[in-house]
Amino acid sequence: MPDLSQIVKAYDIRGVVPDEWDEQLAALFGGAFVDVTGAPGVVIGHDMRPSSPGLAGAFAQGAAARGADVTEIGLCSTDQLYYASGALSLPGAMFTASHNPAQYNGIKLCRAGATPVGQDSGLAEIRALVERWAEEGAPPTAPVTGTVTQRDVLNDYAAHLRSLVDLTGIRPLRVVVDAGNGMGGHTVPTALAGLPVELDAMYFELDGTFPNHEANPLDPANIVDLQARVRKTGADIGLAFDGDADRCFVVDERGEPVSPSAITALVASRELARSPGSTVIHNLITSWSVPEVVKECGGTPVRTRVGHSFIKDEMARTGAIFGGEHSAHYYFRDFWNADTGMLAALHVLAALGGQDGPLSELVAAYDRYAASGEINSRVDDQPGRAAAVREAYAGRDDVRLDELDGLTVTASDWWFNLRASNTEPLLRLNVEARDRAVMERVRDEVLGIVRA
Description:
This protein is α/β, with parallel strands linked by helices. The strands form four sheets. Strands 1, 2, 3, 4, 5, 6 and 7 form a seven-stranded mixed β-sheet that branches. Strands 17, 18, 19, 20, 21 and 22 form a six-stranded antiparallel β-sheet that branches. The longest helix has 15 residues, at 23-37. 50% of the residues are buried. It has helices spanning 23-37, 52-65, 78-88, 123-136, 154-163, 184-191, 224-233, 260-274, 289-296, 308-318, 341-353, 359-364, 382-394, 436-450, and strands at residues 13-16, 41-46, 69-75, 92-95, 104-111, 115-116, 148-150, 173-178, 197-202, 237-241, 248-251, 257-258, 279-283, 300-304, 322-324, 330-332, 370-371, 375-378, 400-402, 407-410, 414-420, 426-433. Helix content is 36%, strand content 22%. The mean pLDDT is 96. The chain is globular, with a radius of gyration of 22 Å.
């Protein structure tokens, strides 16, 4: 019996191939997905990892055996799969492990319209069926086996994104893009085709062994090459995508990283100009600047827990036009409430190309505070260390505590959030203040307790 508790996570399936899961299990997941969703059809895509085509093909056969008609879109980014799920009104399965090392793979599942599938929305039932079938044997095939057909949606995906951003009349831009050997190398050329953009492509060769660096642009080590290229060539902007190209990270013309909070605020201002008075979602560790900008633009900010399922739930509940996270995930109402780094990148290019100043000046209005970035501390006793921090601040009159997601402590000129990792023995700290000296003082004070 496979130990599915190790690979079925809160929001997806992910593990080492073939040690933790393989094509045989993928076929069972395909059948279980069809049974739980009750869908007559499924759309399936995969990234460039060596194991992805085989796993995706096995899933397709398992789904077809249970009677579903399968549409295979082949190599794609995760947001391209979400596009297909939305445009075709089909549940979807994306085979990717995002930025994890090459030996990993996984499945991101959604219902029709790119609605996420997590533990509380079908994933637990899928796991239970797979466990039963793994023990008792595969289920019988349906009276009528489903068909398996191939369809290329890349051009349609790019056209849909371009329909959501006005890029007419932008000035010529020199753009460096680091795809990290991930799926950005597949989607970026089509998404940017025909624009007045001089594209400098870095690591566009699809290679799931990631020979140049990890495809995780939130780690500063992985954008060093991009920063150097921007500085060397005098480019206007640098963009970095993660392995499945659903996240986008930005560097300015100086090669300096642009905070995802600043990008969230910038895109929010543009979306609110298009739809005045709308709601914008942000998680609780984005900058103070995000709700400030949203209010200044006449919108309503709504604060949520960290995690795409919470963002998407709030997007649906409130009818929000846009949502952003500190991790460079950006969600759009007009993209079925799903996240797409490519659409966020197009917004940034439109904003930059629609005025004459450099990117650093453009984003300065949206980057107002000193932030620590996320600091991870490995601890043996997560609850004990977190409780010690709470005790240190609970009796103070000058702060406010809330526990929407971990512990958030807010003062008049600073705030911090301390959250436990769900998968590792880590506490994650984010601090922001009105100036750097205060931020560093609060940061060091909290870390002193966490690491005591």
